[in-house]
Here is the input.
Amino acid sequence: MTTPSFHSLSDVRAQPRQFLDHLFQVAVTRALPLANTARFLPEPPTPGSGGRTLVIGAGKAGGAMAQAVEALWPADAPLEGLVVTRYHHVPPRSEGLPRRIEVVEASHPVPDEAGQAAAGRILAMVQGLSKNDLVLCLISGGGSSLLALPAEGLSLEEKQSINKALLASGANISEMNCVRKHLSRIKGGRLAAACAPARVVTLTISDVPGDDPSIIASGPTVPDASSCAEAVAILQRYGIAVPGDIMSLLEQGALETPKPGDALFDGHEVHLIATPRQSLQAAADAARAAGLPAYILSDEMEGESREVGKVHAALARAVAQTGEPFQKPCVILSGGETTVTIRKQPPGTPRGRGGRAGEFCMALAMALQGQPDVYALAADTDGIDGVEDNAGAFVAPDTLQRALAAGMKLDQYLDRNDAYGYFDRLGDLVVSGPTYTNVNDFRAILIL
Here is the structure.
């Protein structure tokens, strides 16, 4: 399918939905691993040193990151390793590209046996390395689930239960990953400790507000400033049960992670190769190229998706009705990682489907109240909103009107967190398929 060209405001007015999709695609393209890896690759160990180069990693972009390293690494330099990514997130391999890194698939957002097996293999691979060896660690969002190696005494089933409860609780990503790090044998810097005394270089694609490498995929190769006490407080705050013996270990500080300043991290490097801000800036540049002013609110927005949607709607209505704080026409962009708290439903209520981008769009549409000349798209840059097959959804001035004509009341869908059901019936799901990268939420509001 040919992508429409947007060279002027008239082009945008003629195809507002396609224009917003164009901005999303520009944002995703900016974060693809192949375009962002070369300048951060370290030199291979010298031939005379006897050092190996071992590639390990995890995340939704893991398959694409591995292929980027394979394409860019010197052909005469040895390379081996294992990377785990989400099911169906391995990109098509370029013809002639040598296969030097094994890539396996596992479950996200709830870990499974495949992720546990991959994490165990990775931990075993880094045993017995020397100071002449190089470990290249490829990390992207989703790695917390994909590197599933529960702490001693915690079963995979128990870890799955805790993870499901965290996902439904409304906890933010920093809180969730604090708990995950302290209930793992590989996260929170423990993988780096296992690599000693080898040199570790981590290349990471950020999917978290603030781009903190210790939070991305629960920071398996970087020091962790959070504590067991914080993990206990988070579990108690959200009423999440863990086995009694594990809680006792947390309370005693027996599951503590390696901390900043630990000598084991000396000589290690961490490079952010793609960030949410860069992708939002690329989308802003594309909007300006079409003659539209573009404003980036923030790439660090957190909070309940529906509340963030209401705030965005209030801003869009102000611009549309008063020309404040921005003059129309314009595009408003934002990113970050919002959360969805699953509402309890009476027995027999159909299960809601969808993720945080769709929930944002439902709340946005409700608060916009059919505001003329306001269009919006929200999507997850990995191409998957939650666990469904869509990236997000699209909102137009006639969204509420078309839904009512189809017998759908938005408040009922919002109450049961059913964004997929709502926008699917309207034909307004954004479906991109896996993008092979992940720089978190993308939101664009077009005001004409």
In short: The chain has 16 helices and twelve strands. The two ends are 26 Å apart (CA to CA). The mean pLDDT is 96.
